[in-house]
Design the sequence.
């Protein structure tokens, strides 16, 4: 030991350090530095004791973080010195369970390059084996029942490793050392293909099942495929009949479907892909990325009707890699569910629920412990034709699930344990403890019992895995939301229930997403969204706030306009167009496909205030304009009319050489007791005049988007004059509209504002639970 007096160090490592090859890494590192001692997993992370020359110990500690394996995410390293006790070797000790302690859990990770190579190598013992994985990739969260992360506590427990797999598992120098889901064709899970007529009607087993599944897909059939966190429905994305059949059976006439492609080269044949998008597509999370769809793509229009973008992902399990290569063309891969229901999870459930939807089932016998949808990422740097230079380069999640959850959002402060139950649509929940916000994976629209059940079991799982006993529950103000009712039923003590206004939660989520400090200056929050329950009993959604985590003051809003028929109007934008124009201009516009009788009915509803709540929601304004322009009168999925309006507006070449952009439509800004109110009468007059003059839908659409962005800038400037605040946080579902977002951000920044947008959690209702949690933490009633 080169003359130095040996010393000992006790080291605790927190973060995602289990199931990611951390112990073998420590083992190899200790050998490299000639240190003795041990490493073990416990419920709170990894513990290490090392003994040796002080110089080597320091180098070892440094290398722990700088050379950690790719999937490890280290949050803290704690080192204490101790006198040496004479270890003679370095060993990996058995895991220790400690009551009440918890650790971060790795999300499921896409198949790594090494495993891909083995999978496609005819000489490898795992050639075409659909469950190939290693320490650097494969299932994690979806198979874990409890911590510490060890095979008996996963759904791999029933599979006993063969001698070859066991050797890999036991060898600290092997890529599969302690890879809990380690498996091979001899000892691991298997696939089979089954008909839909009766459970057990096997068509083929193992590799023959894979080959036959590929043939069926090529023949235009719809398959239900069991994956990592649930089932997909798959079909040939270049076959119109197959796509239409899938849509009809799933009850999803128009909502865009995601497509899986074998390789990046294939993706480039169908989409324009930027460097950042390539990085996201190939990342270990392997999300669906919304890409600019090429005109010459052979993927049929029916996959994403009236859309300029296509949701694309690369294969992320060995099963997908095999299938996509066999088929040799892009496959639609959409959640295996009926519209609205959660993704199907086990084989029996799939037969029951997906039987009528699929022609056959590609099943396997590895159980799924947690449902897990595909994540969706939006690139807000995609060149928008109407902008000369995009200003941002951010991958913003639209749906956060596979690959991301249950990795927490790190908060810039310590919180008490809180459960926030989220919103109604695109529900997620959020559990907090220490400085972590454990945002759940996407749960779904809380409109049926299946989703409620998924919500409840996932809450139980997270509370158990992360050992959180909530002191209070934060919920939306809407009394009829299933999540609100769940909160009401769970806690008796009224002190422990905290209602948080929907749009304020959006802005708080945006702040937490950006690591905004609790004692920072207030911000201007712009929450442009669909509908949410307001503090005055009206339906909010075009809101400007001033404040922070501790609370917000409403500083401005879009003027209140009637929503004839209430919720019905959301599915029928023509009702909004009629209601808005009638309320503002006293006349009823003629809309294609809407009868005189329907028009008069809506007029009576507005005149007599029959089932006609008032709303300030920006999302509804987009709907109303889309209907008024004749783009869409009735929708079959959320925000369809607004999305089609965005697509038309985006396709309008606003920067034709030699032409200046048309000015924004006029609007009013009146000061009232409760802040500024944005008046929309002039906007509708000007828009109607353009329509009457035969200006194209695309040009009016572009001018309207431009006007909405100018409106935000004008209001923020007025608020800044009064408050001196220069930071603007943008949140709410409307900011999934990239034209609106790009126009708004660029203009706000030109005007000297610092702009916060979402990076880690969705700007849509999928992010609301995070905002609820952080606001509940600072709510006065919740403070001792
Ligand atoms: Zn691997
Ligand atoms: Zn084996």
Sequence:
């Amino acid at each position: 030991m080169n003359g130095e007096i040996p010393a000992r160090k006790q080291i605790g490592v927190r973060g995602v350090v289990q199931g990611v090859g951390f112990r073998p890494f420590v083992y190899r590192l200790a050998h490299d530095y000639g240190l003795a001692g041990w490493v073990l997993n416990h419920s709170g992370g990894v513990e290490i004791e090392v003994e040796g020359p002080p110089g080597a110990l320091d180098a070892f500690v440094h290398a722990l973080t700088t050379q950690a394996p790719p999937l490890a995410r280290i949050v803290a390293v704690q080192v204490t010195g101790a006198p040496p006790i004479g270890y003679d070797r370095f060993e990996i000790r058995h895991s220790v369970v400690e009551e009440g302690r918890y650790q971060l859990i790795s999300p499921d990770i896409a198949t790594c390059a090494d495993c891909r190579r083995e999978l496609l190598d005819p000489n490898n013992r795992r050639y075409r084996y659909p469950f190939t994985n290693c320490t650097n990739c494969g299932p994690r969260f979806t198979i874990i029942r409890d911590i510490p992360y060890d095979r008996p506590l996963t759904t791999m427990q029933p599979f006993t490793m063969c001698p070859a797999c066991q050797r890999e598992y036991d060898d600290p120098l092997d890529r599969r050392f302690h890879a809990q889901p380690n498996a091979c064709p001899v000892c691991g899970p298997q696939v089979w293909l089954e008909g839909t007529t009766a459970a057990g009607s096997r068509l083929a087993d193992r590799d023959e099942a894979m080959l036959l599944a590929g043939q069926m897909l090529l023949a235009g059939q719809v398959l239900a495929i069991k994956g990592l966190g649930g089932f997909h429905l798959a079909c040939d994305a270049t076959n119109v009949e197959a796509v239409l059949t899938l849509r009809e059976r799933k009850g999803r006439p128009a909502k865009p479907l995601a497509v899986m492609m074998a390789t990046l080269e294939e993706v480039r044949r169908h989409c324009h892909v930027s460097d950042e998008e390539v990085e996201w597509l190939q990342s270990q999370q392997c999300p669906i990325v919304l890409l600019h769809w090429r005109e010459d793509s052979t993927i049929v229009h029916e996959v994403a009707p009236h859309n300029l973008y296509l949701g694309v992902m690369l294969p992320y399990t060995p099963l997908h890699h095999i299938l996509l290569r066999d088929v040799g063309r892009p496959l639609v891969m959409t959640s295996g569910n009926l519209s609205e229901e959660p993704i199907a999870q086990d084989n029996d459930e799939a037969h029951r629920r997906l039987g009528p939807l699929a022609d056959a089932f590609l099943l396997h016998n590895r159980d799924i412990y947690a449902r897990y949808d595909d994540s969706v990422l939006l690139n807000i740097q995609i060149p928008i034709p109407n902008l000369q230079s995009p200003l941002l380069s951010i991958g913003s999640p639209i749906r956060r699930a596979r690959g991301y959850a249950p990795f927490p959002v790190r908060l810039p402060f310590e919180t008490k344990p809180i459960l926030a139950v989220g919103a109604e649509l695109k529900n997620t929940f959020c559990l907090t403890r220490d400085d972590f916000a454990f945002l759940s994976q996407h749960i779904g629209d809380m409109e049926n019992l299946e989703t409620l059940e998924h919500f409840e079991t996932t809450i139980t799982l997270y509370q158990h895995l992360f050992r959180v006993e909530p002191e209070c529950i934060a919920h939306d103000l809407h009394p009829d939301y299933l999540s609100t009712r769940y909160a009401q039923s769970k806690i008796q003590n009224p002190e422990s229930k905290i209602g948080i206004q929907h749009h304020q939660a959006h802005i708080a989520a945006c702040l937490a997403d950006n690591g905004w400090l609790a004692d920072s200056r207030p911000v201007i929050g712009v929450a442009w969204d669909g509908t949410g329950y307001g503090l005055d009993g009206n339906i909010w959604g075009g809101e400007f706030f001033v404040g922070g985590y501790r609370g917000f003051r409403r500083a401005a809003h879009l003027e209140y306009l009637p929503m004839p028929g209430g919720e019905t109007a959301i599915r029928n934008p023509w009702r909004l167009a009629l209601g808005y124009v009638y309320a503002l201009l006293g006349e009823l516009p003629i809309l294609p496909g809407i009868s005189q009788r329907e028009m008069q009915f809506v007029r009576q509803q507005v005149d007599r205030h029959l089932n006609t709540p008032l709303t300030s929601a920006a999302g509804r304004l987009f709907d109303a304009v889309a209907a008024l322009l004749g783009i869409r009168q009735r929708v079959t999925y959320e925000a369809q009319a607004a999305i089609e309006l965005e697509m038309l507006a985006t396709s309008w070449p606003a920067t034709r050489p030699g032409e200046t952009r048309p000015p924004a439509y006029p609007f009013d800004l009146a000061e009232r007791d409760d802040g500024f109110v944005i008046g929309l009468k002039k906007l509708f007059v000007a828009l109607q005049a353009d329509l009457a003059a035969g200006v194209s839908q695309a040009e009016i659409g572009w001018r309207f988007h431009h006007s909405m962005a100018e409106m935000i800038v004008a209001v923020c400037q007025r608020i800044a004059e009064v408050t001196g605040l220069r930071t603007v946080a943008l949140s709410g579902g409307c900011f999934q509209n990239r034209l609106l977002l790009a126009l708004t951000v660029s203009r706000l920044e030109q005007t000297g504002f610092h702009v916060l947008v979402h990076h880690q959690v969705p700007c849509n209702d999928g992010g609301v639970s995070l905002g609820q949690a952080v606001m509940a933490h600072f709510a006065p009633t919740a403070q001792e």
Remarks:
- The longest helix spans residues 697-723.
